[in-house]
Model the fold of this input.
Amino acid sequence: MNNADDIKKQLGIYAADYVKNGMTIGLGTGTTVYWLLQELGKRVQEGLQFTAVPTSAKTKEIGEGLGIKFKELDEVDELAIAIDGADEVDKNFQLIKGGGAALLQEKIVEAATKNLIIIVDERKMVDTLGKFPLPVEVITFGWAHVQKRIQSLGCKKVDLRLRDNQPLLTDHQHYILDCYFDKIDDPISLNTTLHNIPGVVETGLFINMASEVITGYNDGSIISTKRPV
Ligand code: A5P
Done:
């Protein structure tokens, strides 16, 4: 029986095999990707050469400390692959992301590849999205009005995310609203509805973006599944 951290570490090592010499890749954010960064750092020391576009300031900071070479998104064309974690993954490979508040940059970077590889432990695989509160990134101006509009969509609770008792500011100087929908029956239409609210910058619904999900199980096994095209 492996604990959550062991599984994340195994996933990081497994996913590092996807990174080949000469690639330009997107690197995600979070506690699972942390282990990927550690493994890639080791492989860089052993001679692996690649360039990465970070999905957050945190990933860039950790990666640079490990010797990983970064570029800005606008300095590169298409990314060969991107690897990231997720908070929930449903049967159709739709995702909730943003638990680490990096969803905006993640979505922009990951839109630059056809090969978004998601690494998650089995607890994050769900039939229906929504138990995990959906993060929605909003402009700071008028955020309480956006909060009310999301509540009026039938969302049970919408919390402004705090850090140290202050509203958390994202890398791009926005707020995050954590939206407790409980059950998201139609993620595609909810994503569109949320985008139509003035003040919403981006949602944590990653629709039709993941091409492959690598799942780590409690018994130590790892299974990779490709999204049917
Ligand atoms: C960051 O904003 C998120 O999208 C993360 O990718 C997601 O929350 C998964 O993070 P963990 O691997 O830490 O669970």
In short: The longest strand covers residues 210-216.
